[in-house]
């Protein structure tokens, strides 16, 4: 026989799957000997069966009846009795807390007879009839589904006995039925109503947002009622064993004299600080502090509790390991280590990379939460205030005068880079978390909200139109919250981040930075995964190193072809003969070399993986339409040639076109130039007494044949530079694995590769057939809403599909070349969940933008626990 009912004395904290979090913890408190009103829990099994079949399991009725008899025996009171009747609460409680999302029914057991018993027992007509009135209202709304307004409309008298009659009439009118006087019927139907509330719209919505599975079901807790609203010696409150906002030691909470728990939760009346209870009822206060101390020791963590005092007697109604801010999480974990309640491993397990990331950036002060002007995708965290500008040049111009600006674009392109550097934040109306704006902003640690589709950006008119039709001109001050994904009108007050300062300078300024430092040290001591950074300037390399990066896993050389060098790239593309192309490449060579020298110097002694140019060349040419207009209005020979080139190179699917290794194979001299620049930079660093560790990486390889050809060229150039310099320039030559075919033929590709690095951005794009640039703004929201994705596969690695390709490539690559070094440099390298996968798959390192390096170190440590 399946058991569907457990008395509190039979359960325990490790039974949350079956009893829900609330039931499991009530059981645990009961077993600890704390004063918990008696009761029992109906299991999630029963709920699941009810939801699947529409009927509760056959044995449930008898098991509830049995538990009820036991409860009546233990309390010496009878449900629905004439004297001192037993009253019950019926509350939901699933494995994961879903605050306020499901139903509660109080005062079960009251009826026309027992209400008189309650009057006698309590000596208060008002209290008894008011309790009956509450039951009718809650039961009517929850069990019978009557609109709450129908009760509110009737609720025009202060006499609770009259209201009881009125509310019975409401029930009669709405359902054609009488309110059941049988307390057993009240109880069963309330249990069913709680089961059903698992599938209420708000509960479903909440679960989707919190990634809670839909098939868990809720348990139902049936418990003897205690009353905090029985006069000045009664009351109710919530308390935390430490401050959940800061993590500071010392109990913290609110107390509401002469009130029911529901009044506190609903915020109906003003509570007093918990310290006030010490004055009002010192004995209960001391007991409460004592119980909370025991709970914290027992759970070895911050606990929150709900309690009620009924006529001087303290009752514990709920406890759980309490929610806390990121700051409190770090402080409490390390404080518990100092108090010898937990070890460093457990402290590390209790914090996360996402929490660390939240602490690294300035924030808007909590009280400054105003209604946002618009919402978008929270693409790069932090908070920034500035005047809006609509192009890169204006951003640069204003920033040069010291003005703080926010660059607003429909979407960004590599052309916007100078403006992004100059701006405090980037705001776009299109694109998702892997759009150009998002990736580049994250790389620079700039605040970014993208895909704010409610905003209309008119670059020509230099205006931004808000959803309420307000038109904002250039120069209007906005506040952008990249952590929340919101945009606000005006300047919200900012708070600085001590953790960000610490990570940048090593300067510790208090308990929080101490706690973060200790946790990171421990993570570094246990992790197996290396952590590198994606960086392509000496400044980013330096910052990455300060943040603890152990090298560069991806230096995107195309970023070095922008700005004034664009002319040279144009010349290379337009060259009509070998000589012209060579001249253009020769002009690029010293510039590239100087870039590499700077980066290798910053990363001296650590590996620097330099990737050969990747994007389609037409990205370096002007926009086709603009150019066509120019040629039509003011034709010049140069523009005509340029337009011809743009048209020649136009592709319908550039992401699947002439890019990556394909460029090196069709543009003569390009690979030579880049490899020479790398080799000569190595020579220059060696001659300066440095320890350069350049690695050459080939993008978008689909077959070993491509890699073999590029490798031969690269080896020839390395040999030439070695010979010319008299020094040994020995750079490992590896490949990105970012096409499904590369993953599936990794065994062959490994024959020609010294290392692999997964480009999971392209691998996700090509495995799913989803454009990384468009998809988040187009049908993603629909997919998320319909539960096809829980999160974007561009953000968190899709383990089943893309992850399988990764596993195959690791296995087959290492079968060919045991010990082959393998990393990942797509955006997933900085994503907490994905980092655990890369650890489990046996990768050697992850590489992510510099600002994600600390969180990656932390998660790599957690993955190794
Ligand atoms: C990738 O595809 O994952 C990658 C790192 O390369 P990029 O983002 O530059 O295409
Ligand atoms: Mg790529």
Automatic annotation (TrEMBL):
<dbReference type="InterPro" id="IPR002192">
    <property type="entry name" value="PPDK_AMP/ATP-bd"/>
</dbReference>
<feature type="domain" description="PEP-utilising enzyme C-terminal">
    <location>
        <begin position="519"/>
        <end position="861"/>
    </location>
</feature>
<keyword id="KW-0670">Pyruvate</keyword>
<keyword id="KW-0460">Magnesium</keyword>
<keyword id="KW-0418">Kinase</keyword>
<protein>
    <recommendedName>
        <fullName>Pyruvate, phosphate dikinase</fullName>
        <ecNumber>2.7.9.1</ecNumber>
    </recommendedName>
</protein>
<feature type="domain" description="Pyruvate phosphate dikinase AMP/ATP-binding">
    <location>
        <begin position="57"/>
        <end position="270"/>
    </location>
</feature>
<dbReference type="Pfam" id="PF01326">
    <property type="entry name" value="PPDK_N"/>
</dbReference>
<dbReference type="GO" id="GO:0050242">
    <property type="term" value="F:pyruvate, phosphate dikinase activity"/>
</dbReference>
<dbReference type="InterPro" id="IPR040442">
    <property type="entry name" value="Pyrv_kinase-like_dom_sf"/>
</dbReference>
<feature type="domain" description="Pyruvate phosphate dikinase AMP/ATP-binding">
    <location>
        <begin position="280"/>
        <end position="331"/>
    </location>
</feature>
<keyword id="KW-0547">Nucleotide-binding</keyword>
<dbReference type="InterPro" id="IPR015813">
    <property type="entry name" value="Pyrv/PenolPyrv_kinase-like_dom"/>
</dbReference>
<dbReference type="Pfam" id="PF00391">
    <property type="entry name" value="PEP-utilizers"/>
</dbReference>
<feature type="domain" description="PEP-utilising enzyme mobile">
    <location>
        <begin position="403"/>
        <end position="485"/>
    </location>
</feature>
<dbReference type="InterPro" id="IPR036637">
    <property type="entry name" value="Phosphohistidine_dom_sf"/>
</dbReference>
<dbReference type="InterPro" id="IPR013815">
    <property type="entry name" value="ATP_grasp_subdomain_1"/>
</dbReference>
<comment type="similarity">
    <text>Belongs to the PEP-utilizing enzyme family.</text>
</comment>
<keyword id="KW-0479">Metal-binding</keyword>
<feature type="domain" description="Pyruvate phosphate dikinase AMP/ATP-binding">
    <location>
        <begin position="17"/>
        <end position="53"/>
    </location>
</feature>
<keyword id="KW-0808">Transferase</keyword>
<keyword id="KW-0067">ATP-binding</keyword>
<dbReference type="InterPro" id="IPR018274">
    <property type="entry name" value="PEP_util_AS"/>
</dbReference>
<dbReference type="InterPro" id="IPR000121">
    <property type="entry name" value="PEP_util_C"/>
</dbReference>
<dbReference type="InterPro" id="IPR010121">
    <property type="entry name" value="Pyruvate_phosphate_dikinase"/>
</dbReference>
<dbReference type="InterPro" id="IPR008279">
    <property type="entry name" value="PEP-util_enz_mobile_dom"/>
</dbReference>
<dbReference type="Pfam" id="PF02896">
    <property type="entry name" value="PEP-utilizers_C"/>
</dbReference>
